[in-house]
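Figure 3 (text version): C-alpha cells given as input.
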C-alpha cells in the first residue's frame, strides 16, 4: 500500500499498545488513523510477552484500566474472528509469611472497594485450585476469579483487525526517521518512504519509544530490562482451568501453556539492556539465554512446583521489556503539542493494553483523559529523569524489588541524595531522617525529637516507617512553634498583560483581588474535576506567584502551558529552584518572627491569606500568611542563596521559645486534623469541588466563563451524590493508608482516600467519599487488614473548627 501524505493521527509502533490505541480511536469514529510499524506487527516486546492478565492495582483508575481490558478481551474473538486465546481461569497470589498475608488482606480490601471479587483462601484451598503446587510454608492466598492469560500476538492481531474494519490503515515495514515540530506542535512525520502531515502522533514504540521521543525533542525515562521466563513440558496432568499463580515471596509466577508450564520472575540482579542504543534491525529477536541469572528463580520455582524439576525445558525466553522508574506506564501528551506517549509497559502491558487504548483515545479526542491517570501521566517525571544514570538507578531498584512488600511511606534509595535545600547541612546536624520527593531530600522527622511517646505508639504496618518524633513535632507545633523547610514546593510565576485574564479563565475562584492577596483555588477540567490545587498570590497588577505540591509542579505547569495564549501576553516560569521556602507555625510564631522584622505582623496589619515583601533579619523575603497545619504562621520565600541564613536566623530566635524542627510526617498529621486536602488522593481529576467540600473556593458568579464552570453549575443544580467526609475510627490503633473499603448499613459505600493518626485529637482519622445522605454522627465501618472497625462520620474540621488559631 502507498503511504498517504496526510493523516489525522499517526501511531508509531505495532505492538499491543499501538494497535489498541488505533482500535479505540477508530471505535470512537476517527477513521483517518494511520499506524506505522518499522517491521511487522508484534515484532517488538509483544511477541515474547508471557501474557498474564491481572487486574488489581493500587488505585481505582489503574484497576479500571485492567478491568476494561478484561471486558474487551472477552469479546474480541466474536468481534474480529481472531482468537486472542483469552482464558479467564483466575489468579492465585500466595503468602508465605504473616506480613505477606497482611498485604493480601489489604489488597482484598482494595478489591472490595473497587468491585473485584477477591477471595482470601487457605493454603489447602490454594493447592486444590493449583494441584501442581506444594503448600509447604504457605500461610494463605488470594484468588481473583476474573483474571487469566492470553496470546499476546493474537491480541495485537485482533486489535489491528478491529481497527482496520473501522477504517484505520496499518503499514508495516515503514521506519520513522523524524518528527517535525512546527510552532511548538507536531507538524509531520518523516519516514523512509515519505513524509506524512499530521497534528497528532502517538509514540507506542515500546523499547524504541525513547528513540522516537527524541525525534520530537522529548525525553522518556525508559530502560529496557532483559526479562526471562521458561517454557517447560511436564509429565503430570495439568487441569485445563489451572489458574495463573504468583508466589511473590519466591519472586516467581506460573501459568499453563498447552501441555506445559510458563514460569518466570523478577530476579534481584536484573540486567538492563540497550543502554548505548538498540540496533535498527532488532526485530522479532530474543537475547541469548542467561541461565546463571535465571538459576535462582528456577530453584525457587521448583520448590513451589516440584514437577518442574523433572520437566523438559523447551526454551528459556530472554527478551527486553520497557521499564520505567516507578513501574507504571507512561501515558499522555508531552510538552510538544500533539505528541502523545503510550509506552513503558513494565511487563504488564498485556494486562492493561485494552483499557490503556481506550483511555488514550479519550485523551486524544476529548483533550483530557476520562479518568484520573496521574499515576501513569508522563508529567510525573521531573527534569532529573533526563539523566540516564538517574533513570537507570531508579529502574533497577524498582525491578529488583518488584515483588517486595511495599509498606506505606516507604522511601526509595536509588539516586540519592540529588536535590538539596540550602539548609541541608543544618537539617542533617539536627538528625533529620530524610525522605525523597521529586528528587528533593526532605525531612520526614528529626531523630533529636524522638522522645518516648506518652500516648499513641504505632504498631503493625503503621510502625514500619514511623518514629515517636512525629508526635513530638506535631505537639510542639500546636503548643509552641515548628520550623519546616518547604523549599521543595513547586513555585511558578506568571506575568504579562494577559496574566489576570488567563488565571480567571483557568481558576474556579476569583483571582481579581488586590495586590498582596493570597487566593486558594483549583483549576478544573471540562468535567469539573480538579486538575490543580494551589494558592495564587497577586504580586502586582500583572504578576502572580503560584505555590503547588512538590510532586505536581510539572503537571500544573503543563496544564497552564497547554492553555497559554499564543500571543505572548502571558509568561509562565518555573522558579522552584530559585527560591527557598521556610514555614514557621504555632502560637509562638509571631513572638519569634516579630523582633526580626520592621514589618507589623499583627493580624490587623498582616491578616490571614495575605502577602508582604519584608526582611527577616538580613534576608529579603516574600512572606505569605498561609498554613497547611492549621496554626498561626507564615511561609517565607527568599532567593535560594539566603536560605541557610534564614534558617539560622529563625532557629536562633525561636530556640528560647521552644521551637522545634519539624518534618513532613508531622505536617501530614496536622493537615488531617484540619481537613486540608491532598491532590492525587483526596482530590483528583475525577472529583469536583462540591464533592470534595471545597465549594467555598468556587465563584460561579464571576463573569468569566472558566473551564469547568458549566459542569459545576450542572452539579450544583442537579445536586451531588457523594461528599468527602472525615471518619473517626473507634480503635485508635487501626490506621488506614488509603484504598480501604468503607461500609455503611452493611454495604460498601466508598473507600478511604487518605488516613493517619491525629496526635492532638488522639484519634485515628480516615477520609472517604460517602453518599451525600451520610451525615456527621452516622455510623460506618472501615476494613483495616481484613477487620471491620467501627467508625463515626464527623464534622470538619476536626481541629479548631472556628479557625481561630490560623487568624490569631
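Below: residues designed for each position.
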Amino acid at each position: 500500500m502507498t503511504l498517504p501524505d496526510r493523516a489525522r493521527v499517526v501511531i508509531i509502533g505495532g505492538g499491543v499498545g499501538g494497535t489498541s490505541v488505533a482500535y479505540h480511536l477508530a471505535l470512537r469514529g476517527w477513521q483517518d488513523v494511520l499506524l506505522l510499524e518499522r517491521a511487522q506487527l508484534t515484532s517488538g516486546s509483544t511477541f515474547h510477552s508471557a501474557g498474564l492478565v491481572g487486574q488489581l492495582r493500587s488505585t481505582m483508575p489503574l484497576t479500571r484500566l485492567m478491568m476494561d481490558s478484561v471486558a474487551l478481551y472477552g469479546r474480541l474473538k466474536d468481534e474480529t474472528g481472531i482468537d486472542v486465546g483469552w482464558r479467564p481461569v483466575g489468579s492465585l497470589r500466595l503468602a508465605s509469611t504473616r506480613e505477606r498475608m497482611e498485604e493480601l488482606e489489604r489488597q482484598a480490601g482494595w478489591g472490595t472497594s473497587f468491585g473485584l471479587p477477591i477471595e482470601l483462601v487457605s493454603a489447602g484451598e490454594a493447592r486444590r485450585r493449583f494441584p501442581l503446587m506444594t503448600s509447604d510454608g504457605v500461610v494463605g492466598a488470594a484468588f481473583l476469579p476474573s483474571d487469566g492469560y492470553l496470546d499476546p500476538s493474537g491480541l495485537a492481531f485482533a486489535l489491528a483487525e478491529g481497527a482496520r474494519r473501522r477504517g484505520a490503515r496499518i503499514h508495516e515495514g515503514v521506519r520513522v526517521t523524524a518528527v517535525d515540530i512546527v510552532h511548538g506542535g507536531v507538524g509531520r512525520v518523516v519516514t523512509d518512504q515519505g513524509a506524512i502531515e499530521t497534528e497528532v502522533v502517538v509514540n507506542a514504540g515500546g523499547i524504541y519509544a525513547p528513540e522516537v521521543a527524541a525525534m520530537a525533542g522529548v525525553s522518556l525515562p525508559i530502560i529496557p530490562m532483559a526479562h526471562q521466563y521458561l517454557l517447560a513440558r511436564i509429565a503430570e496432568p495439568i487441569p485445563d482451568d489451572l489458574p495463573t499463580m504468583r508466589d511473590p515471596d519466591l519472586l516467581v509466577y506460573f501459568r499453563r501453556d498447552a501441555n506445559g508450564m510458563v514460569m518466570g520472575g523478577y530476579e534481584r540482579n536484573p540486567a538492563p539492556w540497550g543502554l548505548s542504543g538498540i540496533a535498527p534491525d532488532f526485530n522479532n529477536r530474543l537475547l541469548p539465554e542467561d541461565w546463571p541469572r535465571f538459576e535462582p528463580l528456577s530453584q525457587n520455582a521448583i520448590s513451589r512446583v516440584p514437577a518442574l524439576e523433572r520437566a523438559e525445558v523447551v526454551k528459556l525466553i530472554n527478551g527486553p521489556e520497557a521499564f520505567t522508574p516507578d513501574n507504571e506506564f507512561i501515558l499522555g501528551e508531552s510538552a510538544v503539542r500533539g505528541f502523545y506517549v503510550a509506552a513503558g509497559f513494565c511487563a504488564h502491558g498485556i494486562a492493561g493494553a485494552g483499557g490503556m487504548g481506550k483511555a488514550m483515545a479519550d485523551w486524544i479526542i476529548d483533550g483530557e483523559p476520562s479518568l484520573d491517570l496521574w499515576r501513569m501521566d508522563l508529567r510525573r517525571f521531573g527534569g532529573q529523569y533526563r539523566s540516564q544514570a538517574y533513570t537507570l538507578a531508579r529502574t533497577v531498584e524498582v525491578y529488583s524489588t518488584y515483588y517486595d512488600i511495599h509498606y506505606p511511606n516507604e522511601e526509595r534509595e536509588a539516586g540519592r541524595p540529588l536535590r538539596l535545600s540550602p539548609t541541608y547541612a543544618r537539617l542533617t546536624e539536627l538528625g533529620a531522617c530524610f525522605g525523597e520527593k521529586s528528587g528533593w531530600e526532605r525531612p520526614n522527622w528529626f531523630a533529636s525529637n524522638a522522645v518516648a511517646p506518652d500516648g499513641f505508639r504505632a504498631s503493625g504496618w503503621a510502625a514500619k516507617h514511623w518514629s515517636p518524633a512525629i508526635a513530638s513535632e506535631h505537639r510542639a507545633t500546636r503548643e509552641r512553634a515548628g520550623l519546616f523547610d518547604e523549599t521543595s514546593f513547586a513555585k511558578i510565576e506568571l506575568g504579562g498583560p494577559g496574566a489576570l485574564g488567563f488565571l480567571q479563565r483557568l481558576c474556579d475562584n476569583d483571582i481579581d483581588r488586590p495586590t498582596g492577596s493570597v487566593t486558594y483555588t483549583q483549576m478544573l477540567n471540562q468535567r469539573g474535576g480538579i486538575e490543580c490545587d494551589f494558592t495564587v498570590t497577586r504580586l502586582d497588577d500583572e504578576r502572580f506567584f503560584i505555590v503547588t505540591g512538590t510532586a505536581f509542579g510539572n503537571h500544573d505547569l503543563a496544564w497552564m502551558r497547554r492553555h497559554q495564549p499564543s500571543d505572548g501576553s502571558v509568561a509562565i516560569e518555573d522558579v522552584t529552584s530559585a527560591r527557598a521556602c521556610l514555614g514557621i507555625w504555632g502560637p509562638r510564631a509571631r513572638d519569634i518572627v516579630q523582633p526580626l522584622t520592621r514589618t507589623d505582623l499583627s493580624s490587623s496589619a498582616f491578616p490571614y491569606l495575605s502577602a508582604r515583601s519584608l526582611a527577616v533579619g538580613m534576608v529579603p523575603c516574600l512572606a505569605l500568611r498561609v498554613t497547611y497545619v492549621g496554626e498561626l504562621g507564615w511561609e517565607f520565600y527568599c532567593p535560594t542563596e539566603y536560605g541557610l541564613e534564614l534558617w539560622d536566623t529563625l532557629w536562633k530566635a525561636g530556640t528560647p521559645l521552644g521551637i522545634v524542627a519539624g518534618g513532613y510526617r508531622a505536617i501530614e498529621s496536622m493537615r488531617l486534623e484540619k481537613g486540608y486536602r491532598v491532590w492525587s488522593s483526596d482530590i483528583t481529576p475525577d472529583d469536583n469541588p462540591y464533592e470534595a467540600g471545597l465549594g467555598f473556593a468556587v465563584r460561579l458568579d464571576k463573569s468569566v466563563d472558566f473551564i469547568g464552570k458549566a459542569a459545576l453549575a450542572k452539579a450544583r443544580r442537579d445536586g451531588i451524590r457523594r461528599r468527602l467526609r472525615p471518619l473517626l475510627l473507634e480503635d485508635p490503633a487501626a490506621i488506614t493508608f488509603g484504598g480501604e473499603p468503607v461500609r455503611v448499613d452493611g454495604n460498601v459505600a466508598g473507600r478511604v482516600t487518605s488516613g493517619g493518626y491525629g496526635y492532638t485529637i488522639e484519634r485515628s482519622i480516615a477520609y472517604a467519599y460517602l453518599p451525600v445522605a451520610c451525615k456527621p454522627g452516622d455510623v460506618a465501618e472501615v476494613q483495616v487488614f481484613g477487620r471491620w472497625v467501627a467508625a463515626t462520620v464527623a464534622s470538619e474540621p476536626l481541629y479548631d473548627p472556628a479557625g481561630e488559631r490560623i487568624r490569631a
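The first helix runs from residue 16 to 27.
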